[in-house]
């Protein structure tokens, strides 16, 4: 039987390869960060390696494009769909359509908000709440005995699972430390340009000027890297005048840590391609797969970044 797999992105185009006997459809969210580029490349490269017939549609940051792509995958009769949902809500109707067409859906990277667990087969990605908790736990250690600080939070895309969960995880931990307060919180859309723009606004506030100990907590590294640019352009030394924490563990963040401009990054492994296609192949061969498959993430700071930078540069 010829099977098909779809990974979503707009305009649609197809890779045809010899080995795999199924077609998959995948619709990635679209370019927003170094992490996203690495994630999309990992899926594409692994598909090519395994000879998967992959239908790929870049959603260009719009949920409606992802929904349109899924409908197109259904119409094309793919065998399985991979979906990293841009935001958490609004998926039930189209996932129901895929279910009725008998096409299994694997959620990669981000989850959807639904009470109907039958609408997807499994989730593959990171535990974003744990990442937020790791960021806050690192901060607690960094603060030492004086647990007082003002946090300037760069939130990811509003309504996206990593934004919701990384905030929640961070707040879970600082809840026990009333001296650590989130004094500003604004979305930087997971992009460097928007992170810079939000930081430019933060440094003009009274909260920034009056703060005795500042923390910049970004829901991803790209926004923190944009914040560093904003601080430098304003004559602020990022490494000395704030504690900067990001999430993703991209090579540029490691470099910023080595350069003394950033302090810590929590890893969020984007290289999901191999695990993703392992799951797809199990499904295609009729095996039962787990409901959740988590990747393992680590914490990297100024103690280890220099030693690990060359290795990280080979990854993402
Ligand atoms: O969903 C994962 C997040 O999406 C990454 O942290 C971020 O960089 C992104 O683009």
Outline the structure in words.
The chain is of the alpha/beta class and 316 residues long. The protein is 42% helix and 22% strand. The protein contains twelve helices and 14 strands. Strands 2-4-1-3-5-6-7-13 form an eight-stranded mixed beta sheet, sandwiched between helices. Strands 9-8-10-11-12-14 form a six-stranded mixed beta sheet, with helices on both faces. Helix 4 (128-143) packs parallel to helix 5 (161-174). The two termini are 36 Å apart. Residues 32-33, 35-36, 109-110, 162, 190, 220, 222, 247-248, 268 line the site of alpha-L-arabinofuranose.
Ranges with pLDDT <50 over ≥5 residues?
7-18
Principal-axis shape equals elongated
How does the major sheet shape up? 8 strands, mixed
Mean pLDDT: 94
The end-to-end span amounts to 36 Å
Query: What portion of residues belong to β-strands?
Result: 15-25%
Which ligands occur here?
Answer: alpha-L-arabinofuranose
Q: Radius of gyration over alpha carbons?
A: 20 Å
SSE arrangement:
Layout: E1 5-9, E2 10-15, E3 23-27, H1 34-50, E4 53-58, H2 63-76, E5 80-83, H3 92-100, E6 105-108, E7 122-125, H4 128-143, E8 149-155, H5 161-174, E9 180-187, H6 192-202, H7 206-210, E10 214-218, H8 221-233, H9 238-241, E11 243-248, H10 251-258, E12 264-267, H11 273-284, E13 292-294, E14 299-301, H12 305-313
Parallel strand pairs: 1-3, 1-4, 3-5, 5-6, 6-7, 7-13, 8-9, 8-10, 10-11, 11-12
Antiparallel strand pairs: 2-4, 12-14
Helix pairs in contact: 1-11, 2-3, 4-5, 6-8, 10-12
